[in-house]
Write a structure and sequence with these properties.
46% of the residues lie in helices and 9% in strands. By secondary structure, it is α+β, with helices and mostly antiparallel strands. The protein has one domain. It has a four-stranded mixed β-sheet with strand order 3-2-1-4, sandwiched between helices.
């Protein structure tokens, strides 16, 4: 089967949004125009209340069917039960950095093993990454979406400050470096998951400015 154009796949994904008062996002290669013909479609659906087992199974089956119908690969390294749906409360927790509490102030570890990728802490870190990485808003509660993205951007600045020398707010360059690469060289999915450097700079510019609107040190180093 010939893969459908990305916009068509995204429209199909939007139609799967559960009637739970939330919103739907697509992220990853379909959001950054780096997809290959069979690249999997990364999706996050949110809602005001949890889906029961039957509801989550129905949503998962619909997403899997969408992939098969459009000739897309499936990526289940992170289980769908972990990555596909989150409540508004979970998104709020993620935007407030709850996924980093255990490693606060130190570069968090990422273990590419199922046991770690299935933890609540990783779920919250993944949601935070989605909110602060390139994504496509597919529909739903736009008010909640804007509020949670802005909170996450401010939190990105807070997280960067926790990973740099304490005291004065970090410059944009130092904040970006702290989130882009761990001191031991880990990057991307082996660290905080960021893959698009310019977007991360934009996120941190907004987040740092929200924290410190009059701070002159937020300009990129020249």
């Amino acid at each position: 089967m010939t893969p459908a154009p990305a916009p068509t796949v995204l429209l199909e994904a939007a139609d799967l949004l559960p009637d739970t008062g939330g919103y739907a996002l697509a992220y990853g290669s379909h959001a950054t125009n780096t997809r290959q013909p069979t690249s999997d479609l990364d999706l996050l659906y949110t809602g005001d209340h949890p889906l029961d087992d039957a509801g989550l199974s129905t949503l998962t089956a619909a997403v899997v069917a969408l992939h098969h119908r459009n000739g897309l690969d499936l990526d289940e390294e992170v289980p769908y039960a972990v990555k596909l749906y989150a409540t508004g409360d979970q998104v709020d927790q993620a935007a407030a950095l709850a996924g980093f509490q255990a490693s606060w102030g130190t570069p968090p570890a990422t273990v590419r093993e199922t046991w770690f990728l299935s933890t609540d802490a990783f779920r919250l870190r993944l949601i935070f990454n989605v909110l602060t990485s390139p994504h496509v808003f597919l529909g739903g509660n736009v008010t909640a979406y804007h509020r949670q993205v802005r909170r996450a951007e401010r939190s990105a600045a807070t997280l960067a400050q926790s990973l740099t020398a304490h005291g004065d707010p970090p410059t944009l360059q130092r904040a970006w470096a702290a989130l882009w690469q761990a001191p031991d060289g880990r990057t991307g999915k082996d660290y905080l998951g960021y893959l698009v450097a310019p977007h991360l700079l934009s996120v941190l510019t907004r987040g740092l400015t929200d924290h410190h609107p009059a701070t002159p040190g937020l300009q990129p180093s020249r």
